[in-house]
Amino acid sequence: MRVLPAAPSIEGLTAVVTGGSRGLGLLLARELLRHGCDVVLLARDDAGLARAVGRLAPWRGGTVRGVVCDVRDRAAVQDRLAEIARDHDGLDIVIANAGIIQVGPADALGPDGFQEAMDSVFNGALNTALAALPHLRRSPAGGRLVLIGSVGGLLAVPHLLPYSCAKSAVAALAEGLRAEEGPHGVSVTAVHPGLMRTGSHLHALFGGDRRREYAWFSALAGAPVLSMSAERAADRIVSALRRRRPRIVLTPAARLGARAHGLAPVTTTRLVSAFARVLPRDGARGTVDGSTVEAAEQPPARRLRRVLGALNERAADRFNQR
Q1: Which residues are catalytic?
Q2: Could you state, in order of their start, the residue ranges of all structural domains in the chain?
Q3: Measuring CA to CA, how many Å separate 135 from each of 88, 115, 132, 186, 201?
Q4: DSSP label of 4
Q5: In what order do the strands lie in the sheet with 205-208?
Q6: What is the DSSP string of 76-140?
Q7: 96 Cα distance to chain centroid
Q8: What are the pLDDT digits (tens) for 26-62?
Q9: Does residue 128 contact residue 93 with C-beta atoms inside 8 Å?
Q10: Cβ(92)–Cβ(141) under 8 Å?
Q11: What is the distance between the alpha carbons of residues 300 and 99, in angstroms, rounded to a whole number?
Q12: Cβ burial, residue 3 (10 Å; 0-12/13-18/19+)
């Protein structure tokens, strides 16, 4: 078995994580703290940031603080990163993780749903990357930029089309910036996770037949074989940024899907089309978040879903999703 050399240390470096108040972002911050980084969390919700900092405070390593910032606001992102770089005498690592998930048929989500996904997922990553690069180029350790994509950006997933389109753009951005920033000493890592147990179903937005869309999405997101432990995902991502890897795809199912689509796109499209036939078809336009859908469930259905998705429900409690 081939033994990989030890990954370079990132102890003492300054790291920023967008969408860092909950879920995967919170776990990435925790992993960076464990490696001795000084971590700054960016998120829109002040109360959520305060809870996240409180959860991370017991972890030994570097320092942690939260900064309110909406990554859709280009000027705000530029100002906040400049302030962080000034306060910490530079910026070494930036992880663009913020975004939204919308679940439902394309016609139910509508043009506004696609625009919202592009604004939050792609423009959020773009604003973060372009604001971070001048600071990362000046990092004595060589800057590291990580863009969180998705296997949905490599293989379009039905009833997640706005998300897939936006993540596809993130994938292209990561590949292009990797090529352009190499001469400046900045590495860019594209991360494409599959399903992870982060508890994100409570903050995802559901359109169409919202109850049934919530049921299938939350069930698959918590399935032990199909989904991945979020802690393990965070460990793999931080290891990849330490090693300056160009790209990683997380979960065996995601790797299989991405490879199959690259080798036999017609066949995989037909298989995905078959999956789409069993998904809900009707329902209302517009979206509501998962916590609202869950609150409207009848107690027996809610109890059954929580039993079937126990791993994801525990993740929601542990990763600041409630």
Answers
A1: 163
A2: 14-318
A3: 11, 29, 6, 10, 34
A4: P
A5: 102-103, 205-208, 284-289
A6: HHHHHHHHHHHHTTS--EEEE-----EES-HHHHHHHHHHHHIIIIIHHHHHHHHHHHHHHHT-T
A7: 8
A8: 999 999 999 999 999 999 999 999 999 999 988 878 8
A9: no
A10: yes
A11: 32
A12: exposed
Rounded CA-CA distance 214/220 in Å is 10
User: How far is it, in rounded angstroms, from Cα 322 to Cα 315?
Assistant: 10
Tokens 């978040």 identify what position? 289
> In whole angstroms, how far apart are CA 184 and each of 14, 57, 145, 285?
19, 34, 12, 46
d(Cα 84, Cα 15) in Å, to the nearest integer?
10
> CATH number for the 14-318 domain, one of 3.40.190.10, 1.20.1540.10, 3.40.50.150, 3.40.50.720?
3.40.50.720
Q: Which two tokens stand for residue 162?
A: 């706005």
Tens digits of residue pLDDT in 101-156: 999 999 999 999 999 999 999 999 999 999 999 999 999 999 999 999 999 999 99
The model's pTM is 0.93
Radius of gyration, CA atoms only, the chain? 19
- Concatenating the DSSP letter of every residue in 181-248 gives HGGGT-EEEEEEE--EES-GGGTSEEEESHHHHHHHHHHHHT-TTTSEEHHHHHHHHHHHHHHT-SEE
